[in-house]
């Protein structure tokens, strides 16, 4: 089984026909595909869609009703993550296969860590520091509010003449070496374990000022023999493949992983030859989360013996402190780390079933979907900063999305090649589709306007600390929001009497139906038929006849609503019910929402092939269950 997060069936088919996805093209000709892929669960988001693929059950059965949700009985300040232990209540195909005596490997299959598998499992990463930049200047796109909100390192420094360093090149005498410190924080405090000394010099002795090289050494260490990284405008390391980047290992300080190995990437984001502008970007210290019964050193092996696994990081990009190119390069590094890991796990373990995931398709579409089309009625087409001046980057940004789909195909090929020791069946899917968007909705401000919160919540799924009403809280992800009434006798600290339950739900519905965009008064923000009472979420209609079941007895909201593109619920501006979104692609809308003229497709990809499978067939009404 292979799944690429957010892979749309129409785009995968188009790229395959154009030669960009040969593995998928082979499956199309040699197997079956869904007519516009397959219908996913409600909501079609990461926290529910991956579990539906793994279990064959809608979210109402497997229990994860969104990326973040509430559980009846909990106080209104407590939320539940889809990826927390206990969130997944069904049995996965992997666990069933193991119980039948089969060997199973789960490699970056989202939610694999909570499936109780005994075979090798890798699932996301643990983070042990902040990420951010050391800079000598304030850039035009640097956004202080986002920098603070995301907790990014942003250290404006003045470079000093280098002193006291040993075992480093002196460089050109015309350009005296400079130094500074790259400060890396751990829970807001400077970490001497992770921070680095920065040594900058001109490596070409030609009498001209042309700073071009950077060495990093551990904090309080000025010996070049201990350098951790080498950077340069034209310097590319073989393991990484692109200039300006390096990766190095550190010993984790503090927490449950103390004393174990983590890794960090650094990039020379900008360095002019005269050092008038210098910016150094660092990722978080991170390591793969992994398990394998009987192999206690498995996670350490991945951390110590492979390139550090990372992925695209939206926060530095949305805060304006790094370029789109940096975001994309970091995302593609996932393949550099994981392709060798996939090969080793599958070659070493020889599983009967491999469940392999790929994240980059989701990451790149989130950032670029609306920026590349459609143009009509789209105020952010080729205009990321909304200044009414074209960016002239449509071709490049389309290339980023194409690159993600090519990466998915390449990862599929790696997994298939390692599994071809006998007859091979391959199922390819996705957890959701994608749609362009450019607006954010603030559920807390909507509830405050309705008199259901005295102070608008800004934290997902948790009422504000100074909210004296706490009648309702909202939990959201993507295009979906769930409203939970804080009901006396059901919820700890309940404030709504049972006899007022229906009236409060009516207030929520009225607030949603009257929501209007001041920038586009005629726009439909939340269609009336996209608002569901809890008891009706067991039969959410889908075009073509089937219904989708989102009804869980204790985890589904008392009112559930799906926004319409270009509106969605993430990254809202506090104090404004509707605001500009800082990113441009989303999912989590009605699972049957398809409007290809507007580049909207919530359906997920579906391809299947293997011995005896009908060749070149197209199957209608495929569902993810």
Give a short overview:
With about 625 residues, the protein is an alpha+beta fold. Among the domains are: about 125-325, no CATH class; about 440-585, Gyrase A, domain 2 (2-Layer Sandwich).
Report on this structure:
By secondary structure, the chain is an alpha+beta fold. Among the domains are: 127-323, no CATH class; 439-583, Gyrase A, domain 2 (2-Layer Sandwich), CATH 3.30.1360. The protein contains 13 helices and 36 strands. It has a nine-stranded mixed sheet with strand order 19-6-5-20-1-21-35-2-36, with helices on both faces. Strands 8-7-18-17-16 form a five-stranded mixed sheet. Strands 9-10-13-14-15 form a five-stranded antiparallel sheet, with no helix packed on it. Helix 1 packs across helix 2 (22-30), helix 9 runs parallel beside helix 11 (394-419) and helix 10 (360-368) runs antiparallel to helix 11 (394-419). The radius of gyration is 25 Å and the shape is globular. The two termini are 14 Å apart. The model has no long low-confidence stretch (mean pLDDT 98).
Structural key phrases:
625 residues, 13 helices, globular, Gyrase A, domain 2, five-stranded mixed sheet, alpha+beta
Compute the number of strand runs: 36
Give me the secondary-structure category.
alpha+beta
Task: Tell me the Rg in angstroms.
Answer: 25 Å
Q: Please indicate the percent range of residues in DSSP E strands (runs of 2 or more).
A: 15-25%
Low-confidence stretches: none
Task: Report strand order across the widest sheet.
Answer: 19-6-5-20-1-21-35-2-36
Distance between the termini: 14 Å
